[in-house]
Structure formats: C-alpha cells, structure tokens
Amino acid sequence: MLKLGEKQQLFVVKQVEFGVYLGEQLDSENRVLLPKKQVPEGTKIGDSLEVFLYRDSADRLIATCREPKLVMGQLAVLTVASVQKIGAFLDWGLEKDLFLPYKEQTCRLNVGDEVLVRLYLDKSSRLCASMKGLYELLSQASPYHAGDQVQGRVYEFSGNFGTFLAVDDRYSAMLPRHEDCSALRIGEVVNVRVAAVKPDGKLDVTLREKAHLQIDKDSQQVLRMLEEFGGVLPFNDKASPEVILREMKMSKGAFKRAVGRLYKARKIEITDKNIRSV
After folding, report:
1. Alpha helices in 86-164 (DSSP H)
2. What global pTM score does this model have?
C-alpha cells in the first residue's frame, strides 16, 4: 500500500522519459512516479529506492528522494514561508510547501515564524500541517531530572492546567497555572528548570528559581504591589490561591514565604484582613 506522508522502500517497475514508476512489488499495478530529476544516476528496473510520498502542485501522488523535515506520526519545527488568505505555508524541505490551514493554527503567524507541527490527512486526503494535537506525539522518556535546566517551546495555553511546552521540541512538559506566563507566546523558546519528573515521565517545569533564591524576587514583588495599592494590600496570606495568583502572579506558597520574610524584617504588618507597609 502506498502511504502518503511516509518514507517507503519501493521498487523501480518501469522507466519512462520523464522518470521512473515505483511499486511495492515488481508486478505492482499501483504505482507512483519519481520524476526524472529525482532519479539517482544508474537506477534500473528492479532497484529498490527509499522515497517519501506526497502530492505535487497538481494534487497528484508523487515520490521524492529528498528528505522531508516532517513525516507522519512525528513532530517538527518548520518555518513559515508565506501567509495567505486560506492559511500559512511551511518550508518542509520539498518543492511544494506544506499547507497549514487557519483552523489548525493556535496563534497568528508571520513569515519567518518557527512553529511546532504534526502532519495529518484532510478530508480530501491531502497532507496538511497542524499546530493542534501535539500532546500525544511528545515523548515521556526524557533524559532529564529534577533541577536540570532545559529549553522548552510553548505550544499550548490551558486555563485549567497551565502552559504546555515541548522540551527540546520532543519531550512533554508543563508550567503550572499559578506561574505568570502572560508574557509568553506560542512558539517561543524559554529557559526553564525541571521541578519534578512525574511517574509517567512527563516533566513539571518552572520559570522560577529554587525557593531560597526566588524568595528575594518575590519579596520585592510584594513590596512593589504594596506601593501600587497605597501601602495596604486588601488581603493577607490567608487569601485563596486564586486571589493571590490573580493579584500577585505567584502561588500561595511563594506568597506566604515572601510575606514571612518581610514580616520578620519588620517591613510589613499582617492583620486579619490585609497586609500593611510599616
């Protein structure tokens, strides 16, 4: 069976002026053309060639010996070659650029942007790219451990869970929802620290430093917010995690540590209803 979007080992079954026809067997009736400019020198009938199958600009099934940057069932970072009314087109190493429909985009794209995508077949059996559904294709077998510094590419925002990243563009990772990710954008590569490795191998990562280093920054953030609120925060360290996240852009635990340090330094006082500058 000839498979779109995959590399296959096929046999040369017929030679013509404009190329060779390939099939799964020498007597195969289901054949695909490998254009003349793609045919390796010295190729003859019966030879086996590894090729990639896709559709050309006339929507015909075609073979190529060129190496695509993306195959079915995998992920790859591709560069936006052009943006049209119907969607974007990505450079994937072949003569015909890969179509990324608007409905499969998760953010607005511009020429030159790099995006993490997968391949799929649309209703017309054409190969297209998608920025969605990447989660299931990411590996959970990373070589990293808690405390490691890694790079992750942002590929999805979730209000319920957090921000999803692809570490090294291949390993599954997530920033928790209580971290301030408002400045991040889809496709951005960020430096993060592995906070934990889950039993299933997925990575919990953080933009924050280790607690004993981060507490200084968090304390300064509390002082800045106190200044913005006129010296009185309208809540204390017993406020709900949701309130603290919304107002302080940090977790309740981080907020309590910062408030505790400022209290011991006698820079604030804590009442039943608020926090005040001293």
Report:
1. none
2. 0.73
